[in-house]
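Hi there, hope your week has been kind to you so far. Thanks so much in advance, here it is:
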Amino acid sequence: MKRKIVLLGATILLAGTLAMGCGSKEEAKTEDTKTEESAKTDDAKEESEWQYVSADEALKAAKAGETHILDVREWDNYVEGRLINSQWCPIFPLEDESLVEKMTTYAKDKLMDGKEIYIVCNSGQRGAQKATGVLEDAGIDKDLIYTVEGGAKALAKMKNALTTSRVDENIDWQYAEAKDVIADKDAQIIDVRDDENFEAGHLAGSLHSDLTDVEDVKLQKSLVEMSNDLDPAKPVYFMCYSGNKCAKTGVSLLQDAGFKADQLFIIKDGAKGADAKAAFEK
């Protein structure tokens, strides 16, 4: 069950002692002193409110795909295991203030749809709290923002909660005909088949990044590293064996890498398609 935990920002300290005969001293206090003590009391009453959701409830929401699951960990931690349908937008390292600006832009572009947001950080503390503040400053209603209690550490204790598979993501997969890809002068083609099949035949100008083991973290990292050489303003087309798992994994990874969803396509039928076969070169 979702819940709110209220943390007192400070402990109220009551200064002074009440004793017989002290009335005259109290009356002697200056207006400045009273104002100062009043200010301290007001500060002590300040509260910081965080909303929490359990790891189990977060997993259920992730599978349903109707909630934003915002993972704010560093890439190397995130790629090793994530909730299905997660969106990656790091706030770590916390001292990197450029990430605040990036998260603000991300929030305005992708999180302003009124859906609840569940934040996953390492342990459900500092990272999630900072991210919550950034999202609120970006204009998101604080009542929509929840921290996954215990963070990734709690999720890791649950069987199969964290995964490296991306083939069942709640993504609106886009497909393109091979003949149209071949005719597109701006096409950036990534062939994600194994070395042997790629060398036997591929579309002209294709880049190669093996993703045959779709859950292999090393292969996933390799593709993301290669994407640094791509132009995010131009369409990217994925060629795999049949236009399914390997290509879907590639699309999901590049979305995490910052590519816009409407620029990512899967070549329909993959290498099995007649048009693709006819155009292959060694």
Summary: The two ends are 57 Å apart (CA to CA).
